[in-house]
Design brief:
The protein is of the alpha/beta class and about 375 residues long. The protein folds into 2 domains: about 190 residues, Glycogen Phosphorylase B (Rossmann fold, 3-Layer(aba) Sandwich), CATH 3.40.50.2000; about 160 residues, Rossmann fold (3-Layer(aba) Sandwich), CATH 3.40.50. The protein has 18 helices and 13 strands. The strands form 2 sheets. It has a 7-stranded parallel beta sheet, with helices on both faces. Helix 4 runs parallel beside helix 5. Bound molecules: uridine-diphosphate-N-acetylglucosamine. Uridine-diphosphate-N-acetylglucosamine binds next to helix 1, helix 5 and helix 12.
């Protein structure tokens, strides 16, 4: 059996790894998965709920790393991950996405000459101020096998000198998870009923917008965050806004004294939600305001208009073919785009190629062949 170590660390990794682990179990005979959780995200509502809701097996190894500066967090993952590779005699390490755990584990494996597999490779915002962009570029440079979600990614990788035979366009594993669960998602009305102020939206039969925001570039600088919150307050005069608040954003709002602005507006807040709750809200929202990477893709898959509070995106297909509009942190542009969506219904969009719920199955089948080739005994 080939020993494959699969790594998860932070919330956006969980919905990507779930279908991969399942497909390897169902579709392959020769691959044995060991799941490592680095512990980058550790709160129950940032981790545990996702494992339960997505049916991810309990991690075989929990590194318990926790929060810290980028250097501390990355270094801590690396130190704790290295002995795991020795102990489990890994034949390959599979990482997903672009969080600190992704690059940390990829780097450890590659220095030990263990092949690295990167799922969601080749996405580029071309904005090096974004920590995830550094993680993406570096992980792709040291990966041996790169699975991509959209065709643009292949061209990005080839520009950076990645050999085309290492790249496979397989589609989007996060959309596999969405397609599998969307029908069982928690009804938006049930989630709203559990949020202070949410029941009123349900009883009035009102439309609502969903807001998520956690990028350091939006929330760490006081002026930027204040501007965004003031804009959102104005937007909430058009329709109620539901705002599950990421811990980073919560801390900054408290630090900058922005709580009052929110509490006096037509905005209901809650802590981070589980996957099924967020999916239910997203599906029923009139529009979504976000700076998340994954939500840009999920709204495209759901056909819900998305207004992205960033200057750029590493997922251009969501703009070219999907429902996404990039507006940055410019207040006038945000409100103008929102008004257009409310007046005309927003971009219709279509399903990008291979976002069909089968990406993980394609990966599992391809991986089995790849292992055979890489580890074939020499004649
Ligand atoms: C990380 C990812 C980002 C992803 C996001 C999703 C990197 C570089 N960034 O950013 O790409 O979009 O996760 O959530 O890897 N905290 C808790 N509980 C937790 C985890 C974090 O309270 O379970 C708090 C800590 O105070 C921490 C802060 O949130 O300092 C930020 O967490 P961290 O993992 O450093 O980065 P994210 O901003 O979550």
């Amino acid at each position: 059996m080939y020993q494959l170590i699969c790594v998860v660390g932070a919330r956006p990794n969980f919905m990507k790894i779930a279908p991969i682990v399942e497909a390897i179990k169902n579709e392959t005979k020769s691959i044995c998965v060991k799941l490592v959780h680095t512990g980058q995200h550790y709160d129950a509502n940032m981790k545990h709920q996702f494992f339960v809701q997505l049916g991810i097996p309990e991690p075989d190894i929990d590194l318990g790393v926790g929060s810290g500066s980028h250097a501390v967090q990355t270094a801590e993952v690396m130190q704790r991950f290295e002995p795991v590779l020795d102990e489990h005699q890994a034949d390959a390490v599979l990482v997903v996405g672009d969080v600190n755990s992704t690059i940390a584990c990829a780097l450890v494996a590659s220095k030990k000459h263990i092949p690295v597999i990167h799922v969601e490779a080749g996405l580029r915002s071309y904005d090096r101020a974004m920590p995830e962009e550094i993680n993406r570029v570096l992980t792709d440079q040291i990966a041996d096998l790169l699975y991509t979600t959209e065709r643009n990614a292949q061209a990005n990788l080839m520009r950076e000198g990645v050999a085309p035979e290492r790249i496979r366009f397989v589609g989007n594993v996060m959309i596999d998870t969405l397609k599998k669960h969307v029908r069982q998602a928690t009804p938006a009305a049930d989630t709203l009923a559990n949020i202070a102020g949410g029941a009123a939206i349900v009883s009035a039969g009102q439309k609502f917008a969903l807001l998520t925001m956690h990028r350091p570039s939006n929330v760490d600088d006081e002026q930027t965050l204040r501007g965004l919150i003031e804009t959102v307050v104005q937007a909430s005069e058009r329709l109620p806004i539901v705002f599950p608040v990421h811990p980073r954003t919560q801390a900054r709002m408290e630090q900058f004294g922005l709580q009052k602005l929110i509490s006096e507006a037509n905005i209901v807040t809650t802590g981070p939600l589980g996957y099924m709750e967020l999916l239910g809200l997203m599906s029923k929202a009139t529009l979504v305001l976000t700076d998340s990477g994954g939500i840009q893709e999920e709204t495209t898959a759901l056909g819900v208009p998305c207004i992205t509070l960033r200057e750029n995106t590493e997922r251009p297909i969501t703009v070219e073919q999907g429902t996404n509009t990039i507006v940055g942190a410019n207040s006038a542009l945000i409100l103008q785009t929102l008004d257009e969506v409310l007046a005309k219904g927003g971009k219709q969009g279509r399903q990008p190629e291979l976002w069909d719920g089968q990406a993980a199955v394609r990966i599992a089948k391809d991986l089995e062949q790849w292992f055979e080739k890489v580890y074939m005994p020499s004649p």
